[in-house]
Design goal:
Elements lengths: L1 E10 L2 E11 L4 E5 L6 H8 L7 E6 L2 E2 L4 H6 L1 E4 L11 H11 L5 H11 L15 H13 L5 E4 L8 H14 L4 E6 L2 H7 L2 E6 L2 E6 L1 H8 L4 H13 L2
Bound molecules: adenosine-5'-diphosphate and magnesium ion.
The site of adenosine-5'-diphosphate has 11 residues, from strand 2 and helix 1.
Length: 239
């Protein structure tokens, strides 16, 4: 579904992503785990076509993003770290605007379906600017779902939420993972281990581990993912 080979990104002479390789199969949830500055958002911004790569290869549903960027983008729904929400619009107006951008034909049905899925029905007529952080995040997720993309890319979807909202958004992501291939990022381990089938641990732009949570534990000889993360990143830093 998604194949990334030897991805490299320089900002000027700073190497933000250093030779990262991973793949995600249909219906899988892949979690990017790494501290701030690891290169998670940069990698996601490349996959979604927001920024260009310096080197490497990215295929989305078999389409090389350099050969056919628009075709590749069509299968992606993206929730950026700071979703571009318009505070003056109601939730319905905002989703309708996103539907128009994405060329959805039956906008009313699309919005009704997505509002139901994301638990936005009760706030559909409220202005986005007046919503709680949790509902704003649901609105961002709803926008990513417009057009029913096969792949969802969610950058730190629970950042800034309170514990109850975090649990709700996690459940929603798990639910969405049944029908979509999902990549999400977080610097919080529990976040990633709660929902992911596979984990890509990134540190300072490098891939430290890419495997199922169980295999990462086993190969690091670790008791917990936390322990594995520390062992693997320290080993990496000593290279
Ligand atoms: P993460 O999302 O894991 O926190 P980022 O991908 O945002 O990490 O950043 C990776 C590295 O690239 C960091 O060192 C960051 O400072 C740097 N970086 C990110 N965006 C830019 C940019 N537009 N220009 C220069 N450096 C950047
Ligand atoms: Mg980030």
């Amino acid at each position: 579904m998604i194949e990334v080979k030897n991805l490299v990104k320089y900002y000027g002479d700073k190497k933000a992503v250093n030779n990262i390789t991973f793949s995600v199969g249909e219906g899988e949830i892949l979690g990017f785990l790494g501290p701030n500055g690891a290169g998670k958002s940069t990698t996601m911004n490349i996959l979604t076509g927001y920024i260009s790569m310096t080197g490497g290869e990215v295929r989305i549903c078999g389409i090389d993003i350099l050969d056919d960027p628009i075709g590749a983008k069509r299968s992606i729904g993206y929730l950026p770290e700071q979703p571009p929400l318009y505070p003056e619009m109601t939730v319905r107006e905002y989703l309708s605007f996103v539907c128009e951008l994405k060329g959805v034909s039956d906008i009313k049905t699309e919005i009704d379906d997505i509002a139901k899925k994301t638990g936005l029905k009760d706030v559909i007529s409220r202005r986005v600017g007046n919503l709680s952080k949790g509902y704003k995040q649901r609105t961002g997720l709803a926008a990513a779902l417009v057009g029913d993309p096969k792949v969802l890319i969610l950058d730190e979807p629970t950042v800034g939420l309170d514990p109850n909202q975090i649990i709700e958004i996690r459940e929603l992501i798990k639910e969405l993972g049944k029908e979509h291939t999902v990549i999400l990022s977080s610097h919080i381990l529990q976040e990633i281990s709660a929902v992911s089938d596979k984990i890509l641990i990134i540190n300072k732009g490098r891939s430290v581990a890419f495997d199922t949570p169980e295999n990462i534990l086993r190969s690091a000889g670790a008791e917990s993912l936390e322990d594995a993360f520390i062992k693997l990143t320290v080993k990496e830093e000593l290279r």
